[in-house]
Design goal:
It is built from 13 helices and 11 strands. It has helices at 25-40, 50-60, 67-83, 85-88, 92-107, 148-151, 299-302, 315-318, 328-340, 355-365, 371-383, 387-402, 413-444; strands spanning 161-167, 171-173, 179-181, 186-192, 196-204, 212-221, 231-236, 260-266, 270-275, 280-287, 290-298. The strands form 2 sheets. It has a 7-stranded antiparallel sheet.
Length: 446
């Protein structure tokens, strides 16, 4: 295995990057107007959804087409901006977008009256997934260093891929295959290394409950050699965008830009980010009101730690802090006791579940009683939100797609107990050795 590849000292380019020549010139014009304001005023509030309007307009005009289609997209953009008037009033970015739209309407002779979306059939079929580009279809000028496996020495063993998942109330599967249920309310880092950073924000599912779920997710891809510019992807409830924060869908304007791509699998529900230059695939979903996260990453990239960074707080690598973990065995015992007393738990929403009915519901999607099944039961009992059944189901589907060892797809409670016992053994050994060292030093000073 070669030593971890170092990023070049190329500084990230100032401002927001836009896609290259593929975009329509008029789309570039309006983006230039918005770019200046996003650069000068990055603190646009999350309540102001002008960024979403910008991303949707950019996505709809990224491929050249008839003038009529551009006008339709521009009218849709105008409608989106007008809907943000209440929350964005007084925001300079909002007002610049208004003026930019008026100018583009005039330049392209677009009428303000007319359709704002392409006509659809009465019973539309779900869109097919975008084709996956083969290596030969990628940009021919992309350097070899921008494809992780091709950049490795021929004498190097194949990379070992690891997986981390974060879903539900929430439940965490670390790169080391530890499975934990955590509180972790607020903002927490999942991953941080030389190449990218991932942070989630979790909010309480039910007032007064320890259970939380992910409502926001931010991923920052750092600039890397001649492959990609620095890019940020941000998602939150009801805003699972199919583009980076600057509206682009690839790694920028460098030769290997297509080594980083955002691919929309199911609009508003499933996005995949492919970072070929570091051999990494990220899956982000919205299930119900909350987000799920899953990643496949080479072990070398996982361990590419910044100098002086202890990595103690990064959940995918170290797990949740001990004081943030929930022992759902105790919770399950209490639920079983409540079931025997015929007292349903959870259910501030439309559903209330007993221990028996929660198990039956989870069994419909997760027939094997592993920790994904147990997490589903926990979520239904703690929240009453039936959508968490699908969150656990998709989390396991992502494991089957991203985990490199099929024998490790399922994790059972006995595996978790063995892991906990092993960790406690290591902790006790550390304490013993520390005490022994103290005694030896004390003896030497006598």
């Amino acid at each position: 295995m070669q030593p971890p590849r170092e990023r070049s000292k190329v500084r990230p380019r100032a401002g927001w990057m836009v896609m290259g020549e593929r975009g329509r010139a008029s789309a570039l014009e309006v983006c230039r107007v918005l770019v200046v304001f996003f650069s000068l005023f990055p603190s646009v509030t999350l309540q102001c959804k002008i960024l979403k309007c910008n991303s949707e307009f950019w996505a709809s005009t990224s491929n050249s087409g008839p003038e009529e289609e551009f006008c339709t997209a521009l009218r849709a953009y105008n409608s989106c901006v007008r809907r943000t008037a209440r929350t964005c009033r007084g925001d300079l970015t909002y007002h610049s977008a208004q003026h930019g739209i008026e100018d583009l309407m005039s330049q392209h002779n677009c009428s303000k009256e007319g359709p704002t979306s392409q006509p659809r059939s009465r019973t539309p079929l779900p869109p097919p997934p975008p084709p996956v580009l083969t290596d030969s279809q990628e940009r021919s000028d992309g350097p070899e260093v921008c494809h992780y496996e091709r950049s490795l020495s021929r004498n190097t063993a194949p990379p070992n891929y690891t997986h981390c998942g974060f879903f539900g109330d929430p439940h965490l599967r670390t790169f080391g295959d530890d499975f934990q249920t955590c509180k972790v309310e607020g903002a927490w880092p999942l991953i941080h290394n030389k190449y990218l950073s991932v942070q989630v924000t979790n909010t309480p599912v039910v007032p007064g409950s320890l259970a939380t779920a992910t409502s926001k997710l931010t991923i920052i891809f750092k600039n890397f050699q001649e492959c990609v510019d620095q890019k940020m992807y941000h998602a939150e409830t009801d805003e699972l965008l199919a583009a980076f924060a600057d509206g682009s869908k690839n790694g920028g304007e460098r030769h290997g830009a297509n080594a980083l791509r955002v691919v929309e699998k199911v609009p508003g529900q499933h996005v995949e980010i492919q970072a070929r230059y570091i051999g990494t695939t990220i899956v982000v979903r919205q299930v119900g009101r909350y987000l799920t996260f899953a990643v496949r990453m080479p072990e070398e990239v996982v361990n590419s730690v910044e100098e002086g960074d202890s990595q103690d707080l990064y959940l995918c690598l170290r797990g949740c802090p001990a004081n943030q973990r929930i022992d759902f065995r105790n919770f399950r015992a209490q639920a079983a006791e409540a079931h025997s007393a015929s007292r349903p738990r959870g259910g501030t929403g439309a559903h209330s579940f007993t221990y028996h009915s929660a198990k039956a519901k989870c069994k419909e999607r997760l027939p094997v009683e592993d920790l994904y099944f147990q997490s589903c039961v926990f979520d239904l009992l703690s929240s009453g939100d039936i959508n968490f059944t699908m969150a656990a189901y998709y989390a396991f589907e992502d494991v089957k797609m991203l985990h490199s060892n099929s024998n490790r797809y399922h994790i059972f409670e006995r595996d978790a107990l063995m892991g906990s016992a092993e960790q406690r053994g290591k902790d006790l050994l550390s304490v013993f050795l520390l005490n022994l060292l103290t005694v030896l030093l004390w003896t030497l000073h006598l």
